[in-house]
Amino acid sequence: MIQEGPETTRMDVSGELTHLTLGRIWNRAAHAVNAIPKGRLIIDTQHVKGWDGAGVGFLAFLKSIANRRGLTTELPHLDEDMRKLMERFSQASETTPAQVEPAPGIIETLGRTGRQLAGDLATQIAFFAQTLLTSFWLIGHPRRFRAGDFMNAVELAGFQAIGIVSLLGFLFGLIMAFSSAMPLRQFGVEVYVSDLVAIALVRVLGPFITAILVTGRTGSAYAAEIGTMKINDEINALKVMNLDPVAFLAVPRVLATLLVTPLLTVFANLFGLIGSGLVITSLGYTTTTYLSHVQSILTPTDVLVGLFKALVYGGLIGQIGCLRGLQTKMGAGAVGISTTRAVVSAIVLLVTVEGIFSVLLNALDI
Question: What is the SS3 assignment for 283?
Fold first, then answer.
């Protein structure tokens, strides 16, 4: 280190600037630069005999220390190759590191969640409107309707589900009757279990149980099927051929689910009443007594309310399954994510709609 003037310091660097030699002088050179109070620093490399990447890093390190201290740094005798590498070091050091965002707070998290839910609800409403308009358009263009896909969806969502829906309805009727009979037996009015089970099954549980089962079987199948087509670029192929994916894929499936869900609800209600009837007869009452109680408590309005609920549930399930399939992203787990989203979204929406139905029917005294 040579002091050439009151504000000029020269540092002579000589020998080999390689990873084998720099370990002995790296810290000493850094301390020497840190000791310079102010002015100009000249790093003279005229007598450097050899260098490698470590040598370039060493010079860039000294230059960065000098710059942080406000010194003017000059390297007058750099050869061309070393100068180019030094410029790359300078460009890399000037890049701004990525800023790590702080973890969001509770209010921010709630805001983001609310925004996502609102956006997803808006998307579902827009897709429902698109499906409805496309259905009306297909009425005027019946040849564009995929009757084969519609029948396949009817078979998948309807005929193949009759067995499991009937079994589940039977078991629920059995369980509800047993659960209700034990408390009512203390008062000697266990015969009214038939009234309780019949009204609850036909108005609420029958359509709701059927909707949950259709969601797990059919809604997830729609999402997986259309999602796989999305990953395989079949959706893009339809668009290239000027075929609307909503008309080609969604409308037949939504209409099929809309049609078969009330029919499946009839089977769930029927076998649920059979299950509850077995419990009532096992308590010593005759079948005639059970049927008379069911006929006296149920009205056509109750049956129509349950079927209307099932109709709405079927449309929601088909729509959400197709929408989640069309929203599938690329990746190994994308189809699984879409399937999960379809089931979870449908169940949450079904519970919400059931709550809305309960409030409206109570307000309208139906």
Answer: coil
| Cα-based torsion angle of the residue sequence 4, 10, 12, 18 in order, rounded to the nearest 10 degrees | 170
What residue ranges of the chain have pLDDT lower than 50?
94-95, 97
Write the CB contacts of 71 (distance below 8 Å, at least 6 apart in sequence).
33, 36, 38, 39, 40, 41
Delineate the domains of the chain, giving CATH numbers in brackets: 2-94 (3.30.750.24), 107-363 (no CATH)
> 149 burial class (0-12, 13-18, 19+ CB within 10 angstroms)?
middle
Q: How far apart are CA 61 and CA 223, in angstroms?
A: 56
CB 350, CB 316: distance < 8 Å:
yes
Q: For residues 56 and 66, what is the distance between their CA atoms, to the nearest angstrom?
A: 16
Rounded Cα–Cα distance for residues 105 and 324 (Å): 29
**pLDDT, tens only, 214-223:** 998 888 988 9
Give dist(CA 146, CA 317) in Å, integer: 19
Between CA 279 and CA 273 the distance in angstroms is 10
Coil vs helix vs strand at 12: strand
Who contacts 242 (Cβ-Cβ below 8 Å, separation ≥6)? Answer: none
pLDDT in tens, 7-55: 677 777 777 777 777 777 777 777 777 777 777 777 777 777 777 777 7
d(CA 222, CA 220): 5
Contacts for 294-301 with beta carbons within 8 Å, 24 or more apart?
A: 294/194, 294/195, 294/198, 296/195, 297/194, 297/195, 297/198, 297/199, 298/198, 298/199, 298/202, 301/366
What pairing do the DSSP bridges indicate for beta strands 2-5 and 8-17?
Answer: antiparallel
CA distances from 208 to 164, 198, 305, 323 (A): 15, 14, 12, 21
**pLDDT for the residue numbered 243:** 81
Task: Give DSSP secondary structure letters for 19-88.
Answer: TTTGGGTHHHHHHHHHH--SSEEEEEEEEEEEE-HHHHHHHHHHHHHHHHTT-EEE-TT--HHHHHHHHH
